[in-house]
Amino acid sequence: MADEKNLFLGLDSSTQGLKCTIIDEALNTVYEKAINFDRDLPQFGTRGGAHAQADGLTVTAPALMWVAALDLLLDRVRADGAPLARVRAISGSGQQHGSVWLNGEAAGKLRNLQADQSLEAQLADIFSIADSPIWMDSSTTAQCEALEQALGGPQAVADLTGSRAYERFTGNQIAKIYRNQPEAYAATARIALVSSFIPSLLIGGFAPIDASDGSGMNLMDIRTKTWAPAALDATAPDLATRLGPIVASHACVGMLAPWFRQRYGFAGDVQVIAFSGDNPNSLAGLRLQDPGDVAISLGTSDTVFGFLAEAKPSASEGHIFANPVDPDAYMAMLCYKNGSLTREFMRDQSAGGSWKQYAQHLEATPVGNGGCIGFYIRDPEITPPILNTGIWRFDAGGAAVTQFDPAQDCRAVYEGQFLSMRLHGRNVGFKPRRILATGGASVDMSLIRVMCDVLGAPVFVAEKADSASLGAAYRALHGWRCAQAGTFVPYAGILRDATPFKQVATPDADAHAVYTTMLERYAELEMKVVIQ
Ligand code: 5FX
């Protein structure tokens, strides 16, 4: 009786678009739909879903765009006749760190949604700040320094919150807004993350932040999963009431508001499970449960992450987050800003805009690029911290050169990205025995080849390259099962029927040896670029 199956919906509000994935209890994907902010909502004038300001550091996105995106996506889903009436629970994913600033009117407006009007029409005035700071922002160095000073240095901040102070982390963004726009801060009733804002629309009230995405704020005690008073005090006054509670990632945060039933035909008893960040959701979607599993997500940002039993935060590299599928565990992560946009830049500049030609360039160049190494910093980089943008190229002798030929440039971009992951991943303790690749670029087999040989582990891919949206649907099912059981149930239990990942590459020992020889040179050159 296929028609009676329970369904679970995952929503992914990412940097560039909004996507939904519906699965059944056996984890089969039964429906998917996506919209792209730039293309489908051109009235907001974004590029890559964001507005980059002239200072080269400040990056925002219009909060109302995320509301309009939900209207548009659900309209299209309804037009497709998707089986929304059988959805039992919804969870979701949001780009990490972005904050949504809600004013004193917001709670009332969310509570009283009228079915004859869109969300956008009813919620246009609920923001105390229209342009949300997002993860690509790197304008808060002064606030990061102040936080580290107040708490006793970078390691002290890392020990408390899981990461040293980072520019994009929400607490430092809040400190900047409190300083530069005190009236807007005063007019704010709730500061949500993107991952707590979207479920707020769904339940018609303020949804709490989950512990996993809350870890990306420099405000939460990574061990107790409660707000850290010292971090709040160093950030802005009366912050705890503006942030609201933190809940476990599997918690039900409320029931779907009547507006969604009236307008789109959802059932009357749909649970909304806490949303989380895109990287935590990818961890859920890639079913990471073993410390030898390392995931690489290749998207607007590239991230490398793995499952951890214990938190050992470091001031020099990476982040520790609460684990989104196991309240007693953690995840470690490295984040790179120069991901897909940098690869696309090189495709357009040196491969005539064609991935096919890019792949031919890789075939025409030797593993190790004859010793040529490049750093392509199109946006201020997070790992390692490089605030000045530019391109740095070095020949086999280590001398700086102004040009490579196009094929060398193409290879240098891919090799550099994975050499960096190998170097910095080693520093955070990743020992990959299996790599799970996801994100748009994971369909590029020439890139997977370089990844596999540089890191020296077999690479697996999921059937679908968008693990955040899928992970959100898995978490909807997981949260629903936990609610039914009245207690936490292990995540592994819901994964039993999942289709195994497909192995797509095995490392070539000779190629891996070439990269092992290159690694220390890469590290030395990277240091030169960092301190230039
Ligand atoms: C993680 O810390 C990041 O900043 C990015 O990967 C964003 O989550 C992208 F949405």
| Biggest sheet architecture | 7 strands, mixed
Task: Give helix % range.
Answer: 25-40%
Q: Outline the low-pLDDT stretches.
A: none
Classification by helices and strands: alpha+beta
Number of strands: 27
**N- and C-termini, Cα separation:** 65 Å
Short summary:
The protein is an alpha+beta fold and 532 residues long. It has 20 helices and 27 strands.
Description of the structure:
Strands 1, 2, 3, 6, 15, 16 and 17 form a seven-stranded mixed beta sheet that branches. The chain is built from 20 helices and 27 strands. It is of the alpha+beta class. The radius of gyration is 22 Å and the shape is globular. Helix content is 38%, strand content 22%. The protein starts with 6 loop residues before the first strand and ends with a helix. Helix 17 (406-428) crosses helix 20 (509-530). 5-deoxy-5-fluoro-D-xylulose binds next to helix 14.
Descriptive terms for the model:
7-stranded mixed β-sheet, 20 helices, alpha+beta, 27 strands, binds 5-deoxy-5-fluoro-D-xylulose, 532 residues, 22% strand
Layout of strands and helices, then pairs:
Layout: E1 7-13, E2 17-24, E3 29-36, H1 37-40, E4 51-52, E5 59-62, H2 63-79, E6 87-94, E7 99-103, H3 106-111, H4 119-123, E8 127-129, E9 131-133, H5 141-151, H6 154-161, H7 170-180, H8 182-186, E10 188-193, H9 194-203, E11 209-210, H10 211-214, E12 220-221, E13 226-227, H11 229-235, H12 239-243, E14 246-247, E15 252-255, H13 258-264, E16 271-273, E17 276-277, H14 278-285, E18 293-298, E19 302-308, E20 319-322, E21 330-336, H15 340-350, H16 355-363, E22 373-377, E23 390-394, E24 400-401, H17 406-428, E25 434-438, H18 445-455, E26 459-461, H19 467-485, E27 502-505, H20 509-530
Parallel strand pairs: 1-6, 6-16, 6-17, 11-14, 18-25, 25-26
Antiparallel strand pairs: 1-2, 2-3, 4-5, 5-9, 7-8, 7-10, 12-13, 15-16, 18-19, 19-21, 20-21, 22-23, 23-24, 26-27
Bound molecules: 5-deoxy-5-fluoro-D-xylulose.
